[in-house]
Amino acid sequence: MKNVILIGFMGTGKTSTGKMLASKLGCAFIDMDQKIEEEAGMCIPDIFAQKGEAHFRQLEKDLVERLSARRNAVISTGGGTVKNPDNVAAFKKSGIIICLSASVDAVLERTKRHGTRPVLDQADQGDRRKAVESLMAERKDLYKQADFTVDTSDLSPLQVVDVIVRFL
Ligand code: S3P
Predict the structure, then answer these.
(1) Alpha helical stretches, state H, the chain
(2) pLDDT-derived band at 114, boundaries 50, 70, 90
(3) Residue 74 CB burial class (10 angstroms; 0-12, 13-18, ≥19)
(4) What ipTM does this complex have?
(5) Which of 36, 85, 96, 146 is the most exposed place for a label (fewest CB within 10 A)?
(6) Is the pLDDT at 2 greater than 80, yes or no?
(7) pLDDT number for residue 122
(8) Which pLDDT score, from 0 to 100, does residue 124 have?
(9) Given a cut of 80, is residue 84 above it in pLDDT?
(10) Region 125-140: what's the mean pLDDT?
């Protein structure tokens, strides 16, 4: 099986959907953020704070290269992994790219705990909605590179899995 790669904005359900999708397909599940944290021995907010975003993006790119050499996995990416065109090209070669999208309200609800999403916390300036809206607009075209998109705003992860399986 080719890899199934889940891309999409923060709070669109990539991790919870990915886990369930992998168990339904009977294949491995890899959560990129979790793997980066394990390998760095540090949580993502600490990587951003102590080493900077550029360092995090390099760790992300190194991991994409390694993951693209394997098959038979569902891979949940971080919301910003698609910012690097090399990452998208590597994913295109090794798998099918599915984008999970969600409304601004759903994303706000799902990412309301501050301190876990440094990119949002940095852009926040006291107005979380504006931060989400402008980052989403900025990244809209990047997420359009997917082979298929599912709007998860009003769906449970299980329902999202069903939609993806039907597409596959
Ligand atoms: C990021 C999203 C995060 C994580 C990091 C950067 C982004 O992943 O990779 O904080 O730039 O959108 P999630 O999409 O899983 O929150």
Answers:
(1) 14-25, 32-40, 44-51, 53-67, 85-94, 104-110, 118-124, 128-143, 157-167
(2) confident
(3) buried
(4) 0.98
(5) 85
(6) yes
(7) 86
(8) 79
(9) yes
(10) 93
Tokens of 41: 């021995």
In ligand 1, the atom with minimum distance to the C-alpha of 31 is 15
51's torsion region: left (phi>0), alpha (psi -120 to 50) or beta?
alpha
For residue 46, being part of any structural domain is answered with yes
Asked if residue 97 is part of any domain, the answer here is yes
Domain range holding 118? 3-161
| For the chain, percent of residues with pLDDT exceeding 70 | 100
Which amino acid makes up residue 55? Answer: H
Q: Is residue 168 part of a domain?
A: no
CATH of the domain at 139: 3.40.50.300
Identify the residue whose C-alpha is closest to ligand 1 atom 11.
Answer: 80
C-beta of 119 in contact with ligand 1 (< 6 A): yes
Rounded Cα gap, residues 110 and 13, in angstroms? 9
131 CA distance to ligand 1 middle (Å): 14
Tokens of 85: 């065109």
Ligand 1: atom nearest CA of 117 is 10
Instruction: Identify whether 167 is part of a domain.
Output: no
Please count the structural domains in the chain.
1
Q: Residue 143: its pLDDT value, please?
A: 98
Structure tokens at 112: 């309301």
Percent of the chain with pLDDT over 90: 91
